[in-house]
Design brief:
The protein is an alpha+beta fold. It has 2 domains: about 1-280, no CATH class; about 310-460, Chondroitinase Ac, Chain A, domain 3 (Sandwich). It contains 9 helices and 21 strands. The chain has helices at about 20-35, 85-100, 120-130, 145-155, 205-215, 215-225, 230-240, 250-260, 300-345; strands at about 1-10, 15, 35-40, 45-55, 60-70, 105, 135-140, 165-170, 180, 190, 195-200, 360, 375, 390, 395-400, 405-410, 420-425, 430-435, 440, 445-450, 455-460. Strands 1, 2, 3, 4, 5, 6, 7, 8, 9, 10 and 11 form an 11-stranded mixed sheet that branches. A hairpin with a 4-residue loop joins strand 3 and strand 4 (about 45-55). It starts with a strand and ends in an 8-residue tail after the last strand. The relative contact order is 0.10.
Length: about 475
């Protein structure tokens, strides 16, 4: 068993540990954007655990760091993932951050035993969906109930986790996760934990019956032989139909359920197979190399169609965002040209209010001069960052009574091959919008005129434009 961990800033800077590969950096960014308090993945022979926590060094501004921990097991079942394992995980988080002189500002997750007990109905429903490869999105309402439900599902799946599942508890939705427990969620939600109800699912009883069926101890021995999630789903459906769980006259409805939910039909059981008799598990393939732990598993045909449609819609959204950003860049350039002609002859004084621009550095000592400045560095950057952009500095909540020049510090050297833009977060639409204001960019800093109060951040294109010719 091999352990590795990594500690990251929201901007993708590695602060400590040996876990620094590209997949870990991208995952850290996702956990920061969703304010994830706990992330668990058991895919590809690797146990990944992560959390985004608020921290502060003495005499410095509050900050956010993301902690990831990876455990590779040498075949066999996944290491236990239960309350005690999560407790031990957060103890390691606190100990390793304390060694870097960080103090946790959060009280900590409510994972105490017995808090917010949940019933079996919602658990069986979620279990049935997860085993058939369908995601489950829950809204929490009560934090203690979030963890109670989370551990109830984990406990039910424990013998089967090696086939690969992902789980997260967060403030906002994290895409492409099997089980999401969020404070709020836009779009389709399967379970409301505040009322312990399933929300408007015509196949609720079918999923719940499959979830109850999967708890059979003898069946668990059969399912434990699956080497992948698709194989697990196929084996479960084969046993479900072979055990005559589908009632007479209900086969058409069951076929409609599989077709409507995009679940592949079950393969025929082995010749002479008998319900309740454990068959030898299929041969388990060798554990993938540690460098390949981020490779996705093969997807069923229905999932591939769903994924292709999602990619198509994302490409359309990306095209619209690029068009909006392009228009914003043109407007910014036009304003910059006007300002250049006005500022050069001295017609327009800079800064606008005649006072020095406040200089904000992430995690810098708080000076007396800055104590009266109404600029607050956000612990968590708002989500919905355009796919073709990346932040090069922290996000700030800036309050101004009149237009004010502000110097913001970047986290990377300036490149002439990139463009830079200032964007303001529109809370009502939950999107970042370009600000029509010129930028004075120097090495690792940018001076911008802030027209109104709001949340601002500097962005650049993720990849520099390719040379023509």
């Amino acid at each position: 068993m091999h352990d590795a961990y990594g500690i990251f800033t929201p901007d993708g800077e590695a602060l400590g540990g040996t876990l620094t590969d590209e997949y870990a950096l991208r995952l850290a960014e996702r956990l920061d954007e969703s304010s994830a308090s706990l992330y668990i993945s058991t895919k590809h022979g690797v146990l990944l655990m992560g959390t985004a926590v608020n921290v502060q060094k003495q005499g410095r501004r509050p900050d956010t760091v993301i902690y990831l921990e990876r455990t590779v097991w040498e075949g066999g079942p996944v290491p236990a993932v239960d309350r005690s394992a999560v407790h031990a995980f957060f103890e390691r988080v606190e100990r390793r951050l304390a060694a870097m002189e960080y103090a946790l500002r959060d009280v900590g997750p409510e994972i105490g035993a017995g808090a917010g007990l949940v019933g079996a109905r919602t658990t069986d429903y979620a279990l049935g969906r997860l085993l058939l490869g369908r995601p489950v999105v829950c809204t929490a309402g009560i934090p203690s109930r979030s963890y109670a439900f989370f551990f109830a599902v984990l406990n039910a799946l424990q013998p089967l986790l090696s086939t690969g599942f992902t789980f997260v508890i967060a403030k906002r939705i994290v895409p492409d996760i099997d089980l999401v427990v969020a404070e709020t969620a836009a779009g389709r939600v399967q379970v409301d934990l505040a009322t312990e109800t399933v929300t408007n699912d015509a196949w609720e009883e079918m999923y719940r019956d499959i979830g109850r069926f999967s708890r059979n101890p003898v069946l668990r021995q059969i399912l434990a032989g699956a080497s992948s999630h698709p194989a697990l789903t196929g084996s479960l459906l084969a046993e479900y139909t072979h055990a005559n769980r589908v009632p007479p006259g209900g086969k058409n409805r069951f076929a409609a359920f599989l077709a409507e939910e995009g679940i592949p039909r079950a393969p025929k059981p082995p010749e002479g197979g008998t319900p309740g008799i454990a068959r030898p598990p299929e041969e388990r393939p060798a554990r993938p190399d540690e460098a390949d732990y981020a490779k996705p598993p093969p997807r069923p045909a229905a999932d591939r169609l769903e994924q292709e449609y999602a990619v198509h819609m994302e490409q359309k959204r990306t095209a619209r965002r690029r068009l909006a950003i392009g228009v914003g860049v043109v407007l910014v350039l036009m304003v910059a040209i006007l300002v250049l002609f006005l500022v050069s002859p001295g017609l327009l004084p800079l800064p606008l209010n005649g006072t020095p621009a406040p200089h904000i550095t992430p995690s810098a000592p708080i000076t007396p001069e800055q104590a009266t400045v109404l600029i607050t560095r956000l612990n968590t950057t708002p989500g919905n960052i355009p796919a073709d952009l990346q932040g090069v500095g922290s996000a700030y909540d800036i309050t101004v009574a009149a237009p004010q020049n502000v110097t913001l510090e970047l986290t990377a050297d300036i490149s002439t091959e990139r463009f830079y833009s200032l964007m303001r977060y529109n809370a009502s639409g939950a999107i970042w919008e370009p600000v029509e204001t010129p930028l004075v960019v120097t090495n690792k800093t940018v001076v911008a005129s802030i027209p109104t109060s709001g949340i601002y951040r500097v962005f650049t294109n993720r990849t520099p434009p390719q040379p023509q010719g």
